[in-house]
């Protein structure tokens, strides 16, 4: 399998990945944002060299689809000519408002930069897989709680100062807590975790570390200087007590389930939590709407439906932003764009224009609860018209979509790799319905692909009739159970609403 077809790789600008609609490249831009004019230039390049579809991922990266080997090289040259800074190396991610959010606990950028430098100095980049990542979250209005990572650092207030909570293997809810430390110690623990992962090979992640290794990390009371850290033996799962530096409290009073272990009654898994209506598994505020920055200055978040938009519509929106005085456009985790610098009076006009173009301008928009890949006809791997199905479901069942619905053109599940409350997946037998699992699971029922939206409409009708007062649709789904949900989906007719 060559570099253009290996699944599980990160399709960076220099290493496109083959997908069902051609080559895909991903631009992991540093959070300094782009001017609207640069955004227009990038979208125009995507139109010239790809199929005109641009995406913002759940992690806040930009994807350009439908490229060929030749056009991918031309795109890379044009991105370079535009002077757009593209992140390389192990991803160390900070939030889209890092450093400018008045509500954040600490600016995460200095620590993130020190971690990047330490990772490079230790020579870990070529030894780690392309999807190994680190998150440094300073808190504030747009957290990174919903983003999974091998290592997570979250700012905590500690008296008059700040400590960083270091966790591994998960999102803001599911990650395993290790320690709370000052920034230098937190950096060194992060590098030690990555070194252990690298020792296990390029296919490894932090979730593959042994319980003994995790306990040794959590029990660290001192941290070696960077020159000593390479001598740590991850295969032994032990870390000696070094003389230099003091690691702050190890928080023994906090318990968390180990990797591959079952937590206690107080732990809610992301999927079970969503199905019960209690949590969404690391859910944080959606990056859509207005976010105060300073005084009467606001950042405006505008979402891409299902994370995707034609490049010409992105150009239209960016041109309007130029006219309205926007100085910067940033990518945001959660499949959105943030518009900064425009006068506050311009935000309503920009929202109105975005809505007319088909963008998502309200965090309550039902499309924010649907994950849908390109599907047919855009992707050759797709078996169903995912976006058409998604639009119909969003328009007809907005009152019941308080859970994640995944619509996948095939069993790869590219748009939502994790489990979802309900997943429609295209296959040889039509549109299958998977309950409480991923797109790779065996569907509980089928109906023709063209009729999938009607099947979900029937499920929604059952929810409306069976839901108790005050009960969420997600909780009702849990109570009904997979068999009843699948039966409702398979039924040929949807009851007419009164």
Automatic annotation (TrEMBL):
It comes from the Bacteria. Residues 16-81 form the Nitrite/Sulfite reductase ferredoxin-like domain. The keyword Membrane does not apply. The keyword Phosphoprotein does not apply. Keywords: 4Fe-4S, Heme, Iron, Iron-sulfur, Metal-binding, Oxidoreductase. Signal peptide: none annotated. Pfam families: NIR_SIR_ferr. InterPro entries: Cbl_synth_CobG-like, NIR_SIR_4Fe-4S, NiRdtase/SiRdtase_haem-b_fer, Nit/Sulf_reduc_fer-like_dom_sf, NO2/SO3_Rdtase_4Fe4S_sf. One of its GO terms (molecular function) is 4 iron, 4 sulfur cluster binding. PANTHER family: BLR3264 PROTEIN (PTHR32439:SF9), FERREDOXIN--NITRITE REDUCTASE, CHLOROPLASTIC (PTHR32439). This is Cobalamin synthesis protein CobG.
């Amino acid at each position: 399998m060559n570099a253009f077809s290996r699944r599980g790789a990160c399709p960076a600008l220099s290493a496109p990945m083959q997908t069902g609609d051609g080559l895909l490249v991903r631009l992991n831009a540093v959070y300094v944002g782009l001017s609207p004019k640069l955004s227009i230039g990038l979208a125009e390049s995507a139109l010239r060299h790809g199929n005109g579809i641009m995406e913002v991922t759940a992690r806040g990266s930009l994807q350009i689809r439908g490229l060929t080997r030749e056009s991918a090289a031309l795109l890379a040259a044009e991105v370079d000519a535009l002077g757009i800074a593209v992140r390389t190396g192990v991803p160390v991610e900070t939030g889209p408002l890092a450093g400018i959010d008045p509500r954040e606990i600490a600016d995460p950028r200095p620590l993130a930069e020190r971690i990047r430098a330490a990772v490079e100095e230790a020579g870990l980049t070529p030894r780690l897989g392309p999807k190994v990542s680190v998150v440094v979250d300073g808190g504030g209005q747009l957290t990174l709680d919903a983003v999974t990572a091998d290592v997570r650092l979250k700012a905590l207030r500690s008296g008059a100062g700040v400590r960083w909570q270091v966790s591994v293997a998960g999102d803001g809810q599911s990650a395993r807590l290790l320690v709370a430390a000052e920034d230098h110690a937190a950096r060194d623990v992060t590098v030690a975790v990555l070194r252990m992962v690298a020792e296990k090979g390029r296919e490894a992640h932090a979730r593959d570390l042994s319980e003994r290794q995790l306990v040794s990390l959590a029990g660290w009371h001192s941290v070696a200087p960077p020159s000593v850290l390479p001598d740590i033996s991850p295969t032994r799962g032990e870390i000696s007590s070094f003389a230099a530096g003091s690691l702050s409290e190890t928080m023994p009073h906090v318990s968390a389930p180990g990797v591959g272990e079952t937590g206690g009654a107080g732990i809610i898994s992301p999927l079970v939590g969503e199905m019960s209506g209690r949590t969404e598994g690391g859910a944080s505020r959606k990056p859509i709407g207005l976010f105060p920055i300073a005084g009467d200055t606001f950042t405006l978040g505008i979402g891409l439906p299902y994370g995707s938009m034609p490049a010409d519509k992105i150009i239209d929106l960016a041109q309007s932003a130029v006219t309205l005085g926007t100085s910067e456009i940033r990518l945001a985790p959660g499949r959105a764009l943030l518009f900064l610098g425009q006068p506050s009076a311009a935000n309503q006009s920009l929202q109105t224009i975005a809505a007319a173009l088909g963008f998502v301008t309200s965090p309550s928009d039902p499309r924010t609860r649907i994950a849908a890949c390109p599907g047919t006809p855009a992707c050759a791997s797709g078996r169903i018209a995912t976006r058409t199905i998604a639009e119909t479901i969003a328009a007809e069942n907005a009152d019941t979509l308080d859970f994640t619905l995944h619509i996948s053109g095939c069993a790869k599940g590219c748009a939502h790799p994790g489990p979802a409350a309900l997943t429609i997946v295209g296959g040889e037998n039509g549109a299958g319905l998977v309950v409480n699992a991923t797109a790779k699971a065996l569907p509980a029922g089928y109906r023709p692909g063209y009729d999938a939206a009607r099947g979900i409409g029937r499920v929604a009708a059952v929810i409306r009739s069976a839901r108790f007062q005050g009960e969420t649709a997600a909780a009702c789904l849990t109570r009904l159970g997979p068999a009843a949900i699948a039966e409702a989906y398979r039924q040929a007719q949807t009851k007419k609403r009164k």
